[in-house]
Amino acid sequence: MAAPIVIAIDGPAASGKGTLARRIAEAYGLPHLDTGLLYRAVGARCLADGVLENEAASIAAARMLDLSTLDADSLRGAETGAAASVVAARPGVRAALLDLQRSFAAQPGGAVLDGRDIGTVICPDAAAKLFVTASAEERAVRRFRELSARGAPQSLAEVLADIKARDARDSGRSAAPLVQAEDAVLLDTTDLGIEAATEAALAIIRSRLGAR
Ligand code: DC
User: Fold this and answer.
1) How many CB atoms lie within 10 A of CB 108?
2) How close is the Cα of 45 to the center of ligand 1, in Å?
3) Using CA positions, which residue lies closest to atom 10 of ligand 1?
């Protein structure tokens, strides 16, 4: 049997990594896990129970998480994203979600995972690693359009402030901060449309997989 192909895609909020991960997974016929959804589900549970500040409750919520019940659509909102970023800074929450992510990556043919620490912590041996980024301003415009399309009322300035706060929290935390893995290839999508970004990402991955 061919060796499994694990592809790790990391980057900050609204960098385009989710869309790229989905397209790469399609191109290689691999299952895809958006790991941000796990933290969003834990954040949403804690918000619903009014226990966002309670670390032990968030760890318990992470331990109870069931991949098969995740509803991506209901987890996309800005409030859920901010709550996700709060619980994601807690080492106990991250530890509780580790096995689930590693099991997903260990499927026989391989998998594509996207998040913040896939190339550094979850799948350090991934065959190909991409670090997708874009300027905070460009990411804010993208997120603003996405939220507007969902009818979520937030100004562009609010979205930009939110993105910057999330960047600071995700990069500044001590538990698995957002950093580019040494062997990840940087893809800056600031000036790329989605088709051009997909082409660039696929070219990087082809060359990485070919170089194995
Ligand atoms: O990618 P996203 O916006 O759905 O992620 C939501 C939050 O979850 C983000 O602020 C940081 C956190 N996260 C993380 O810490 N590690 C991951 N692998 C994925 C997401």
Assistant:
1) 8
2) 15
3) 85
Domains in the chain, number: 1
Flag whether 210 is in a domain: no
The tens place of each residue's pLDDT in the chain, 212 residues long, gives 578 899 999 999 889 999 999 999 999 999 999 999 999 999 999 999 999 999 999 999 999 999 888 998 899 888 898 899 899 999 999 999 999 999 999 999 999 999 999 999 999 999 999 999 999 999 999 999 988 888 877 899 999 999 999 899 888 888 888 899 999 999 999 999 999 999 999 999 999 998 55
pTM above 0.85, yes or no: yes
Nearest atom in ligand 1 to 117's CA = 18
Cα(192) to ligand 1 centroid in Å equals 23
The CA-atom distances, in angstroms, between 106 and each of 40, 110, 158, 176 are 23, 6, 39, 20
Range of the domain at 179: 5-205
Strand 128-133 and strand 32-34: pairing?
unpaired
Q: What is the CATH number of the domain that holds 186?
A: 3.40.50.300
Residue 198 beta carbon below 6 angstroms from any ligand 1 atom = no
CA of 88 to the centre of ligand 1 (A): 7
Residue 211 included in any domain: no
**Residue 212 in domain:** no
* 32-34: strand order across its sheet: 32-34, 110-115, 5-10, 128-133, 185-188
* 180 in any annotated domain: yes
